[in-house]
Every structure is written in C-alpha cells, then in structure tokens.
Amino acid sequence: MDLWVTEYQTPSLGFSCKVKETLRYEKTEFQELSVVETEQFGKMLLLDGMVQTTEQDEFVYHEMITLVALNSHRNPEKVLIIGGGDGGTLREVVKHPAVSQATLVEIDERVVIASKDFFPDLACAFSEPKAEVLIADGIEYVKQQHQSFDLIIVDSTEPVGPAIQLFSREFYQSVYDALKDDGMLVVQSESPFYNQNVIKMAFGGINQVFPLTKLYLANIPTYPSGLWSFTVGSKLYDPQLPSCSYSQGCKYYTPEIHQAAFQLPAFVSRIIE
Ligand code: SAM
User: Fold this and answer.
1) Active site annotation includes 155
2) ipTM here
3) Which of 58, 102, 195, 255 has the CB geometry, 3.0–4.6 Å to 190, for a possible disulfide?
C-alpha cells in the first residue's frame, strides 16, 4: 500500500508527498519530530506535521535567509541564529568570508541530532571552527545580550509552541538591543497567500522597533503556497542594496535575485501597508 505524508497547510488544504520510508518518529520535549524519505524531495524533516526542510529544495530557503543580509551588511562578523537546528542556515553563514563567529541557539537538541543522523549536507557546519551550537531558548538567550551581534537570523518554526514569542514586538526589541549600532535582523515570515497575519505581526512588530523594515520573497516548493517571505529590520544599511556579491556555490541566490526579491506583487505590498 502507498504511504503518503500530508501537511495540512490550511484547514482546507493538504500538501502530500509519497513516502518511501519513515526514518524517525518521536515526541521530543517540545514537538513531534519526523524524518521521512520522499520520492519527490528526498529526505524531509517535519515538526508537528509541518515541513521544515527537504534535501531537494533546502538551498532556496537557506541561501535566501542568510545572503541578503550577509551581503548588504558592511561587516557581518558576528552572527546569531535562533532556531535553525537542522544546520542549513549555519552552513551558509560560516561559508561567508566576512563572518568570523556564528552562534546557533536551538531549543530542541533532538532536531540537531536528527539532522546529524539524516541530513549530512545540512549538519556539516556544526563542527566548523567558526560555529558555536547552544541548546537553549533563543528568547532568553537574546535578552542576555547587549550590542553583541552584527546580524541576528530567526530561523524559527511557525508561530505556535516554543516559537510563538519569536514573533512578538517584545522579542524584536530584545533583538534590537542585542545588535550593534549598524546591526540587522532577518526573520522568516511565512506565506503571503496563506499567512498574511503572520506577515503583519512580524513586519509590524519589527517596523515598530527598527528604523528600516523591508520584506522580500523567494520560491520554495515545499513551503505553503510555494511563495515565501522574509522580513529584514535594519539599524543602518539598506538590505536591498548588496555591498558584496558573495554567492559562491549558490543555486538560487545571485546579486540580481537579491535586488529582484524586494520587488513585491501588489497584493503583498498591501499586506504591509
Ligand atoms: N526552515 C524552517 C521553516 O521555516 O519551516 C525552520 C527550520 S528550523 C528546524 C526551526 C527550529 O526553530 C526548530 O528546530 C525549533 O525547535 C526551533 N525553535 C522554535 N522555538 C525556538 C526558541 N524559542 N528558541 C530556539 N529555537 C527555537
């Protein structure tokens, strides 16, 4: 009998992939974790039934959540990643020549372990000399930092469970305080088709705290609707203007995509008006 995995992306829409094999299923302290081998996208990581990453399309998300900010900040030496326990964002950050130190704060150690066990192309950066991996709540960690980072990337799950506070104005204020005077924040802010409230919450909250807030888009086939948004808050630099063109080994990001990603369809501009 065929086995399929379905993510219920809205109350009336499911996204299904044919599964060759279930590789892991467990209830961690924080969430339900599964790793399945799909026919279409290779290995897929799901948390609470929501697709987090797949072998085939992870490059889009991980290049786009990192390189837009890394290439528009003039000197992104110290980077903090909140969440991102699969390691894909860390892999892109440590590759960047301007970065000298990358700290990843993931709440759920089981996600890091699953990545090490099944996603070697994502987990490859955990042991890099530039990388530091901490198992802790990113919200509490950020509160203890003061002007410590050049760039903070929030690579979180959807705003449910342990990630809900990661979309609050109070959290964005702590991030602002943890950034240096020319610091930047990037968050994944979900689908403009299905999650307009999340975009309003992220963009609106960041915009209340940072002098410059911008939204950009990327196409990610396994995320709800395939069109995904990211929101940047910046203290100084315009994130739309790359000052460096680093894109070695990239499969999605180019300096042209960097600028084009900020061109928004009319209905998306209206969400953040
Ligand atoms: N790319 C993904 C997406 O948008 O679907 C997100 C990937 S990553 C696996 C998300 C991680 O954020 C999860 O491993 C989750 O445990 C972590 N996370 C959620 N809340 C957190 C918190 N408060 N502090 C640190 N990590 C958190």
Assistant:
1) yes
2) 0.98
3) 195
